[in-house]
Predict the structure.
Amino acid sequence: MDKAETALLALRMRDWVSQAGAHIRHHIHDPLHVQTKSSRKDLVTNLDKQTERDLIAAIRTEYPQAQIMGEEGSGDHVTDLKGLVFFVDPIDGTMNFVKQKYNFAIMIGAYIDGAPHVGVILNVMRQELYWGGPQLGVFKNETPIKAVSPLSLEDGLFGINSGMLAYDRYHSHQLFKTSAGMRILGSAGIEYIQLLEGRQVAYLSHLAPWDVAAGRVMAETLGMSVSRLDGHPLDMLSSGDVLIATAPTVADIRAIALDQPR
Ligand code: 2AM
Ligand code: CA
């Protein structure tokens, strides 16, 4: 895809998530139908499902050949990464959406033959739209974001999945003590935004492809590392433990998390 086509794709993706965000804000105080999925902490609402259907319909109108992986199941059963593939998370941080009406995101990642191409993350309640990719750079609304200044783990805040911290997975208590502090935000998209803005140096969580896809495009464009904790590249067809971190902190984190010599 050339630069003009990529810019048009990014414009469309921004438009789709902006419209979806406006719809959610308009209905934010409506009664919600909340269901559990894999556990009592894994929720889906009628607005997650409706938003996904709306986003996927918009994508199909403009890109009928593309494959679409959506969290709530209205996309395709994607088994390979050939061509243009969209990853759609209609509401990222559904627990926050239900309990706080705040701190949740809409995310779409577009990949071509498995390579990150364009990502968009909308902080719905703050109306802050992060978007970009390797051909475009990264923007907050219309303002370019520069690569973040590298802090060490000791000087930076660390975002983590609450379950990992509760059960001390990957020596996360030691990671907590070594870092400047830990933050648990409950939404991969909102965590990604902290990294893009240079407010946190790392995020460690168990994530699905739609949780990772959009932010990965932008984080890598700004020079951050996005990989499995052990350093293996991500497989965008399966869930797993993911470390997103500024380059100087990756080795520090792996040394503690995996008991590796430095
Ligand atoms: P979600 O709200 O879209 O499900 C913190 O809970 C983060 O992890 C959120 O971004 C959440 O996304 C995601 N998440 C929650 N449960 C998950 C699961 N079982 N597998 C992968 N990601 C999950
Ligand atoms: Ca979701």
